[in-house]
Structure formats: C-alpha cells, structure tokens
UniProtKB/TrEMBL annotation:
It is found in: Cytoplasm. The active site is at K362. Catalyzes the first step in hexosamine metabolism, converting fructose-6P into glucosamine-6P using glutamine as a nitrogen source. Homodimer. Residues 44-183, 216-357 form the SIS domain. Keywords: Aminotransferase, Cytoplasm, Glutamine amidotransferase, Repeat, Transferase. GO terms for molecular function: glutamine-fructose-6-phosphate transaminase (isomerizing) activity. It is an enzyme of class 2 (transferase). Its EC number is 2.6.1.16. Coiled coil: none annotated. The chain holds residues 242 to 608 of 608 of the full protein. It catalyses: D-fructose 6-phosphate + L-glutamine = D-glucosamine 6-phosphate + L-glutamate. The keyword Transferase applies. This is Glutamine--fructose-6-phosphate aminotransferase [isomerizing].
Length: 367
C-alpha cells in the first residue's frame, strides 16, 4: 500500500494534496475560448431558460456541495433551488413539475438512496443530471445526462478531492445558467473565470501551510465537543468542516448557522469550548464577528477562517487562518482546505484510523 499512497502516510493526505489537479481537471476542459462549454449537458439555451426549479439531491459531503451551490444558483442565476438528502427526498413526495431539473451528486455513483431518488425523479418525468466521479457507475448510466468530476479514484472514506471537484462543477453550471438567463454580464463572467483558474494555485498555497495547522490541531486532541459556525455559504462550509472532523476524529461536533446560536447551542459553550468560525462572506462579516463575540464572552476558544485583509477579526478570535481573495461564491473551495487539514491532524494526533474510520463505508450501497 505504501507505493499506492505515493509517499504519503495516508490516502486522505495524498488525496487532499491532489486537489489542485482535481480542480484544474474538472474546470479546464469546460472553458473554451473564454466561454463555459458543458456539452454533456445536452440542453439548448431555450431549455436552460425554461428551468423553473432545481432540486439538488445527495448524501453526506456531496449534499454539502449542493447546500453550497443553492446559494450560487439562487444568488447568481436566480433559479429557486431545493436541496435534500436523498433518503428524505425519496420519501417526502416532492413536488416535481415541468421545468424542474433534478441534480444528483455522487462521488461513487452507487449510493443506494441517491440512486433511488434518481429513479423516482425519472419515473415522475422530470429531467435529471448526475454529477458523478466514477465513470460508468449506476447513477452515471441512469441519469439523463452526466457531468463528470475528474477527481480520479478516491480511496479514503472521508472525501476531499471529489468534494472539491463537485464544488467547481457546480460553479461552472451556475455561471453557465446565469449567463444564458442574462443574469450576469460578459465582464462578470470573465472575472469569475479568471478567479476559477486561480483556485488550483490558491489551494496549493493553502496546502503548503500544513505544518502550521498541524501544530495548532494538536491542541484539540482532548476536545469533547467542537462547534462550527458561519452564515450563508460559510454555514455550508461549516457543515462540511464539522462532518470531516467528527467522521475521522470521533470528536463530537456540530455546525450551526451563526445567527441561530442564541436559540440553543450557545448554552453548550463553556470555558475553553473550541469554536471554529467561518467568515469568508464579506457582506456577512460584521454579523459573524458579533456571533464570535457572543461565544467568546462565554469562554469559547475561537479559530476563525476568513479572507486576507480581514485583520479586524484578530481582535476577537484567538487564532486566524486567512484564505486568499476570490469571488465570494467560490470561498468554499479555499476555506475547506484548512478545515480538512485540521480534521486530518486532529485524527492523526489521536491515533485514529484516518482512512478507514469505524462504522463508515466509502460507498453506501444499502439503504
Ligand atoms: C459515504 C461517504 C461520504 C460520502 C457519502 C455520499 O457516507 O463516506 O464521504 O460523501 O457516502 O457518497 P457518494 O459516493 O454518493 O458521493
């Protein structure tokens, strides 16, 4: 196995380090002469204009990418989006009308609930699109159309590179839809494409700071609970950061919409409780900072992830990780990197079986 891990101690670390390539490979074949071309979508501009609702259906981390892109499809392309975990969607008798597009996101393409949700959507006669990593998998074969993420084989149970590829695939789709529907200007598209192309190098840079995060992570090995807070896309990032941590380190952790804290979770904050605050959305920065103050007042130890330049956060947070500037819609792709590294090093520090956490499977093919 040592050879397969390419010199890394774990597949997870190897796969985290493959993310710059994964992102590049998923984006670059779909940008031609400064335009987004997603031939496999097989949809005319007319059909794209007629989409009146998107349903994103997935499980686990794939669901978190959909939760992120809801903000993007709605914010940028102004298409209403519903996001469901597949095991809920398939049993809730959703309203699927003409003009709906059901997007199923899955690394393996074999997750039982996601496949069942796809089959239900097809039976109900709506258009389906799979965003899938494994070529020729069940979801890839059965969806009307398939957009592949080019992450290559992923071995570690906790997904990292497939997650990153799913995110950028959805950015491309959202920009394409926004453009066809006249919701963004050519200049805005040009700027977003430039930001997209910068992501691989920015991710590379964040990965290169791993020793710093390792040192910091070692302080959390004895933690019993960790809370992740954020607003908007930062809430979506928090959900994935929290899932990564709990699945591999077995530390109880919860993600909370920062503004919702005072309706419950804040009662759990005690002296020294670690809180990870994600604050990449500049429009929400002040609001999130006030939530950081709330938990600090109750004794929390706060690690913040924010954009370069937001140094005022240092007045409240105990430890700050900066991510480089990008379009606010793409922040998840950068902010998740330190959170993946953090989870990884906490789990390694605790001596956990990082690549094969107890009770979890890479691909859940039973309901
Ligand atoms: C399992 C994996 C997760 C993954 C989820 C959905 O729970 O451990 O990492 O996000 O299944 O898998 P899929 O293959 O459908 O993306």
């Amino acid at each position: 196995h040592a050879a397969e891990k390419g010199g890394y101690e774990h597949f997870m670390l190897k796969e985290m380090n493959e993310q710059p390539k994964t992102i590049r490979d998923t984006i670059s074949p779909r940008i031609k002469d400064g335009r987004i071309v997603i031939d496999e979508l097989g949809m005319s501009d007319e059909e794209i204009r007629n989409i009146n609702r998107i349903h994103i259906v997935a499980c686990g981390s794939a669901y978190h990418t959909g939760f992120t892109s809801k903000y993007i499809f709605e914010g940028m392309a102004r298409i209403p989006v519903e996001v469901d975990v597949a095991s809920e969607f398939r049993y809730r008798n959703p309203i699927l009308e003409d003009g709906a597009l059901v997007i199923i996101i899955s690394q393996s393409g074999e997750t039982a609930d996601s496949l069942a949700a796809l089959r239900m959507a097809k039976e109900r006669g709506v258009k389906t699109l799979g965003i899938v990593n494994v070529v020729g998998s069940s979801i890839a074969r059965e969806a009307d159309k398939v957009m592949y993420t080019w992450a290559g084989p992923e071995i570690a149970v906790a997904t990292t590179k497939a997650y990153s590829a799913q995110l950028v695939a959805q950015y491309l789709l959202a920009i394409k839809f926004a453009q066809v529907r006249g919701k963004v200007t050519e200049a805005e598209v040009g700027e977003m494409l430039r930001d997209l192309k910068k992501l691989p190098d920015q991710v590379e840079m964040l990965l290169s700071h791993k020793e710093k995060i390792q040192k910091f992570a070692n302080r959390f090995i004895a933690a019993k609970d960790i809370f992740f807070i954020g607003r908007g896309i930062d809430y979506a990032i928090s959900m994935e950061g929290s899932l990564k941590l709990k699945e591999i380190s077995y530390i109880h952790s919860e993600a909370y919409a920062a503004g919702e804290l005072k309706h419950g979770t804040i009662s759990l904050i005690e002296d020294g409780t670690p809180v990870v605050a994600v604050a990449t959305q500049d429009a929400l920065l002040k609001k999130t900072i006030s939530n950081i103050v709330e938990v600090k007042t109750r004794g929390a130890f706060v690690m913040a992830v924010t954009n370069e330049g937001n140094t005022e956060i240092e007045k409240t947070a105990d430890y700050v990780i900066y991510i480089p500037q990008t379009n606010a819609y793409f922040a998840n792709s950068l902010a998740i990197i330190p959170l993946q590294l953090f989870s990884y090093y906490v789990a390694v520090g605790k001596g956990c079986d990082v690549d094969k956490p107890r009770n979890l499977a890479k691909s859940v093919t039973v309901e």
